[in-house]
Amino acid sequence: MYIFKTLSNGIRVVAERIDYLKSVSIGVWVGNGSRHEDLDKNGISHFIEHMVFKGTKTRSAQDIAGAIDAVGGQLNAFTAREYTCFYTKTLDSHADIAIDILSDMIFSPALKEEDMEMEKRVIGEEISLYEDSPEDLVYDLLSGAVWGDTPMGRNILGTRESLAGITPQIMRDYMHTHYTNKNMIISVSGNFGEDFFDGLEKYFGSREIPENEVLCPGAEYVPSDIVREKDIEQVQLVACFKGIDIMDEDVYSLLVFNNVFGSGMSSRLFQNIRERRGLAYSVCAGHSSYIGTGTFDISAGMSRENVGAVCALIAEEVRRAKKDRLSADEVARAKEQLKGSYILSYESTGARMQSAGRSLLLDRPIYTQEEVLEKIEEVNTESVSRVIDKVLDTDTLSVAAVGPINSVSGLFDF
């Protein structure tokens, strides 16, 4: 059962009490990610994530880390295209420490110029790491190809050039306009008492916070191909189709379909390409859903001489799915596997906090475990066929590749 509250300054809270546990996960979610950034500020959302850990007006970076380490807790954050999340996991008896630290980091970051200059170098190393990782680079290239020179098409990390122009005042101004009461929520999962909400009110609700709304720019998927020739051993390739958006309830049918098609070692793609023929080490499919848009992608890593054969087999499996669909037995087995995986993941307070927090932030329904299991059970061959038509529309095919290859033209024959 979820508890919904609104703090005095308008920050919304969703909390799930699990009284048989001794821990609690707390996440502060901000509806701000790379999708909200102008070109000259590309990467600022991720930069903010780094900087709030560098110290506040009353705590050093060591003080922040030491306070959580001293009670055996965890403190971390991540930035995505549409949101940033700062989160902790501690014993329930130390929840007040976690709330205090999170509040101080978000509302009173020091943002010292010398710290920012050092962190620009750190993020520069992070950018280099991604550029040296073909598995990551191919997805960055794909995003730029299908969404073009828009916030959705740009790297979440930004560029060295865009980061160089960000000053402490620019960051403060950006946080003032994006870290607002209508754009921030707190999600909690685990054990806590009634006084827990008093702590949230003390450390969060009492803070002055802007009230303006933050609009999410639109994004139009445009089929495009892109290749980055690179002198490495393998070709990393992604075949991508326009997918479903974050509000589409067909997501459960999509998960069932992909359980059979491309997710896991028993999937059609894995069995046909890796297990039976040994043509690739990695091959899988997955979906990413955003506000108003989404992608469904098939990725593989293989030697240059196997590219043609792997792509032909991927095309064969796509044609098979579109023509023959899934059988009732396949759907039934996939539903059971999906329910089992979901129940196991639901044993993590962190996963539960993230699910509820993300849903509230993006104005999606927050379902209980029982409701999710019911929605999985409602999936049938007809709903799976419907979602196959949505996500395997070959007119939306885009291809990205990194490695010893100079063209992806003609690789897929649908």
List keywords for this structure.
5-stranded mixed sheet, single chain, 15 helices, 414 residues
Describe it.
The protein has 414 residues and is of the alpha+beta class. It has 15 helices and eleven strands. The strands form two sheets. The chain has a six-stranded mixed sheet with strand order 1-2-6-3-5-4, sandwiched between helices. Helix 3 (95-107) runs parallel beside helix 8, helix 9 crosses helix 15 (381-391) and helix 12 (328-345) packs antiparallel against helix 14 (369-378). The N and C termini lie far apart (47 Å).
Low-confidence stretches: none
State the major sheet: 6 strands, mixed
* H/E element order: EEEHHEEHHHHHEHEEHHEEHHHHHE
Mean pLDDT: 97
Write the layout of secondary structure elements.
Layout: E1 2-6, E2 12-17, E3 23-30, H1 44-51, H2 61-69, E4 74-79, E5 84-91, H3 95-107, H4 113-131, H5 134-147, H6 160-164, H7 168-178, E6 184-190, H8 195-205, E7 225-229, E8 234-242, H9 251-261, H10 268-275, E9 282-290, E10 293-303, H11 307-324, H12 328-345, H13 349-361, H14 369-378, H15 381-391, E11 398-403
Parallel strand pairs: 2-6, 7-11
Antiparallel strand pairs: 1-2, 3-5, 3-6, 4-5, 8-10, 8-11, 9-10
Helix pairs in contact: 3-8, 9-12, 9-15, 10-11, 12-14
